[in-house]
């Protein structure tokens, strides 16, 4: 099985990327491709730029990566209660080239933040929006208070949250018949 994993953040120190890397460690027996959102940086979306310049090649490249995968693992950063500007811009460009750019691919959708809500606002928005863009959200996981509940060496340190995370991974594996 081919898995595409990335964080909806352009931060080099992204805690969502750390959560993604931890999560893909439970899929070692599969072909996992870890993307960096920075590799898909595009001009700020505008209809004027779209009309004058067309679509960025990087939008097509990300859509190609999605088309070649069987499962998407995505963890979204929350900036001011919504998507990061980097992820929103990528989403805007990709959705203009293909309104269902997630191509009905199954997805494990996650979020984390330093706060106690764990990116809950962006998660709630994504649960509504991403299926309209062709994502089949199999299940979700939110990790609150990242710095208190995540260890750089061992991953999720809170036992209850670790068990929830593992149950979500097992749910994905069962639904994907892995």
Account of the protein in words:
- The protein is α/β, with parallel strands linked by helices and 178 residues long.
- The protein has a single domain, classed as Flavodoxin domain (Rossmann fold, 3-Layer(aba) Sandwich), CATH 3.40.50.360.
- It contains seven helices and nine strands; from the N terminus they run E-H-E-H-H-E-E-E-H-E-H-E-H-E-E-H.
- The strands form three sheets. It has a five-stranded parallel sheet with strand order 2-1-3-6-7, sandwiched between helices.
- Helix 5 (120-129) links the parallel strand 6 and strand 7.
- Helix 3 (57-67) crosses helix 4 (85-97).
- It starts with a strand and ends with a helix.
- It is an enzyme of class 1 (oxidoreductase).
Main attributes of the structure:
globular; two-stranded antiparallel sheet; alpha/beta; 7 helices
Topology, pairings included?
Layout: E1 2-8, H1 15-24, E2 31-34, H2 47-53, H3 57-67, E3 71-76, E4 78-79, E5 82-83, H4 85-97, E6 105-112, H5 120-129, E7 135-143, H6 146-149, E8 150-151, E9 155-156, H7 159-175
Parallel strand pairs: 1-2, 1-3, 3-6, 6-7
Antiparallel strand pairs: 4-5, 8-9
Helix pairs in contact: 3-4
Pfam families: FMN_red (PF03358)
GO molecular function: oxidoreductase activity
EC number: 1.-.-.-
Summarize the structure.
The protein is α/β, with parallel strands linked by helices. It has seven helices and nine strands.
């Amino acid at each position: 099985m081919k898995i595409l994993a990335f964080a909806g953040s352009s931060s080099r120190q992204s805690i969502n990327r750390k959560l993604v890397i931890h999560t893909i460690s439970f899929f070692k027996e599969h072909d996992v491709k870890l993307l960096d959102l920075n590799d898909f940086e595009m001009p700020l979306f505008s209809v004027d730029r779209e009309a004058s310049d067309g679509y960025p090649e990087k939008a097509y490249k990300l859509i190609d990566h999605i088309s070649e995968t069987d499962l998407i693992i995505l963890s979204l950063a929350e900036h001011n209660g919504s998507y990061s500007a980097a992820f929103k811009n990528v989403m805007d460009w990709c959705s203009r080239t293909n309104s269902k750019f997630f191509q009905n691919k199954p997805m494990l959708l996650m979020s984390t933040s330093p706060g106690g809500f764990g990116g809950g606002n962006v998660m709630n928005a994504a649960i509504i929006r991403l299926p309209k863009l062709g994502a089949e959200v199999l299940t979700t996981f939110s990790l609150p208070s990242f710095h208190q509940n995540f260890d750089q060496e061992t991953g999720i340190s809170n036992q209850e949250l670790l068990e929830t995370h593992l149950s979500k991974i097992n749910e994905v594996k069962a639904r994907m018949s892995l």
